[in-house]
Amino acid sequence: MPFERLGLKAELVRAVSARGYAKTTPIQAKTIPLILEGRDVLAGAQTGTGKTAAFTLPLLQLLSAGNPQGRHPRALILTPTRELAAQVGESVGAYGRHLSLRHAVVYGGVGFNPQAQRLRAGVDVLVATPGRLLDHLSQRTLNLSHVEILVLDEADRMLDMGFIHDIRKVLAVMPKKRQNLMFSATYSEEIKKLADGLLHLPALVEVARQSQDAELVEQRVHKVDKERKRELLSHLIGSGDWRQVLVFTRTKHGANRLAEQLGQDGIKSSAIHGNKSQSARTRALSDFKEGRIRALVATDIAARGLDISRLPHVVNFELPNVPEDYVHRIGRTGRAGEEGVALSLVASEERKLLADIERLLKRQLPSEVIPGFEPSGREEPLLKAPGRGGGRSQPGGRGGNRPPAHRAGAGGRRSGSRQHQRT
Questions:
Q1: What single string gives the DSSP state of each residue in 139-169?
Q2: Terminus of the chain with fewer CB atoms < 10 Å: N or C?
Q3: What does the alpha-carbon distance between residue 1 and residue 25 come to, in Å, rounded to a whole number?
C-alpha cells in the first residue's frame, strides 16, 4: 500500500520517498492508522519488518499537529541498546526533516554533559536507553511530565536484559494520560503482564509468528571441525568475494580473536561487543556500513537493533546457546524485501544446539559439506545451553555480552535475579 493512502502528511511522505520506500510493509499498513487514531497499540513484529517507521511516522504526525509544550519532551522512545537508540534517532531525524520538531538521543558510554545541554535546549522527541535516562532524571536535566506518547521498542529484549525496574521508575514520572505503543518480537508471560499494566484497551497487531525465521533468508549448515572453522570462513569470504558479512560468536574474547585472525588472512575486520567503548562500537559499525571493512564480528548484543540495509551474508561462526537468538541473528539479513544468506558453521559438539534450533523452526536446515573441509567424524562432548534462569549470565550467554557501565558502580543494581549494567 502506498504511504499516501495512510493519511500521512505530505512532508512525511516526501521524507519516506527520499529514503527509497514507496510502499508500506504489513506492520506499517496495520499499525500507522491505529496510532493516528490515538489508540494504544501492542504490536508483535520481528526485526527487519519496518517497525521503526511504523511508530515513528505517526508519532511525528501527531506531534506536528498538537500544541508545543516548550522545551520538554512530548514523546519518549525507549530502546534496549545504544546501537538501536542511535538508529531510531537517525530515523526520527530523517523522517522528520521537513517538520519543525526537535529530537535528541541519550545513552550511556558517551559524555553526559553534551546530552544535558541538548536536553536543556529543548526537544520534542527523545530516544533513550533506560539507564542513561534515569541518570538524567536523577540529575534533573530532564523533565518527562509533558510526555504525550511513549514507545517501548523491543520490549522483550528490555525485559530480558533486566530493565523492568528501570522502566517502572520511568513510568512513575510521566503523565498517567498518554498514548502507549509497545513493540515486541515475542509474547512471554512477562511481556503480557507488562502490557496489561501499561496499555489501555490496546489494539493488537501481529504480522509474523513468534520466532518465525526470515522467509527471504537462504539458510544452510556447513559441518566442519571446530579447529578449521576460521579457515573455512576465510575460504567462503575469499572464494565468494563477499564484500560484507556479519559474523556471530558466543563470547567477546572469541569475537576479538576471530577479527584478528581474519585480518591476518587479509580480510579487513572489526569486532563489536559490550566491552568495546561506545566510540569503538560506533566506528566499527560505520566502517562496516561504508564498506571500509568486510567482516564485522559480533556477539549477541548485535543480534537485535543493528539496521544494515541490504546486508547479504550472516554467518553463525558459533551457534547460539538460546535457539531464539538464531532467529534474531539471521534476521539481520533478508530485510525489507531483500534476499540474504545465513550460514552456520557447525562442529560436532554443537549438534545438540543445532537440533534445538531446528526444533524451534519446525524443520531441518539443509546441510552441505565444503570440499576440503570434511569433518573428521570425531564425536566431541556436546555443548549444553545454559538454563533460562541464572545460566544466562554465564560468559556464553547473553548476559556476558551486555553493554558496559558508563561509570564506576553503575552495574551494581539488580533486577530480579539478573545483575545488569546501565546502557
A1: TT----TT--EEEETTHHHHHHTT-HHHHHH
A2: N
A3: 8
String of DSSP letters for 278-329: HHHHHHHHHHHHTTS-SEEEE-GGGTTT---TT--EEEESS--SSHHHHHHH
Distances (CA, A) of 351 to 364, 382, 393: 12, 7, 23
**Smallest Cα–Cα separation from 141: which of 113, 170, 179?**
113
Residue 131 φ then ψ, to 5°:
-60, -50
DSSP 219: E
Rounded Cα distance, 255 and 253, in Å: 5
Beta pairing class for 414-415 and 418-419: antiparallel
Exposed, middle or buried, 113 (CB in 10 Å: 0-12/13-18/19+)?
Answer: exposed
Could you state, in chain order, the average pLDDT of each consecutive group of 10 residues for the chain (423 residues)? 88 90 88 96 80 95 80 94 90 94 93 95 96 96 96 90 92 95 85 90 76 69 96 96 94 94 95 83 88 92 66 94 85 71 95 93 92 83 55 35 36 37 47
| CA-CA-CA-CA dihedral for 71, 72, 78, 83, to nearest 10 | 20
Torsion angle in degrees (nearest 10) through CA of 19, 291, 339, 18: 10
**CB-based contacts of 294, cutoff 8 Å, min separation 6:** 237, 242, 243, 244, 245, 267, 268, 269
First to last CA, the chain: 37
Query: How, if at all, do strands 75-78 and 245-248 pair?
Result: unpaired
Q: What is the 3-state secondary structure of 177-195?
A: CCEEEEEECCCCHHHHHHH
Domains identified in the chain and CATH numbers = 3-206 (3.40.50.300), 217-385 (3.40.50.300)
pTM of the model: 0.65
Q: 338 and 310 in contact (C-beta within 8 Å)? A: yes
Angle at 253 between CA 247 and CA 256, to 5 degrees: 55
Going by C-alpha positions, the residue among 90, 317, 124 that lies closest to residue 222 is 317
